[in-house]
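Tutorial handout. Part one gives the primary structure; part two gives the three-dimensional structure as tokens.
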Amino acid sequence: MKPASLKQIKDEIATLSPQELATLTTRLISHKKEIKELVTYELFYKNDEQEYIQDVQNELSGIFEDVNTERLYFAKKTLRKVVRIANKFCKFTREKTTEIDIYIFVCKKMLELAIVNKGSQQINNLYASQLKKIDSLVSGLHPDLQHDYKKMTGDIRL
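Part two.
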């Protein structure tokens, strides 16, 4: 079965009744966790980015608490997991400032662990890639916001 084009799907959705649309949405949500998370963002956090950022930071903080700083191999695996989850949550939002805030939080927490620059090139590269993402996002903002975020990121530079 070949999937329909986006335009065809939009046109078909426009013809559905509210009840049919609710049934379709519920059925979609039940299949994948990521779709459920996206719908949660759209319904509950879309108009309150600060609350969304806070909830994402709380979830990431819980993962950061589990980082095994004694063994760099396990620390690296956990940090990759944190970055993967942060990227997923950043994908939901359309606000560049929200993405920047989440990435800055990840970098600050990585520095708090004191394992960056401790001999693991992979962890250093992971940290550098986060800084690169922040820089690319900041460069697309208004100059006033760029200045503010560059000041914020000054303390996470190595």
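Part three, for discussion. The chain has a mean pLDDT of 90. The two ends are 52 Å apart (CA to CA).
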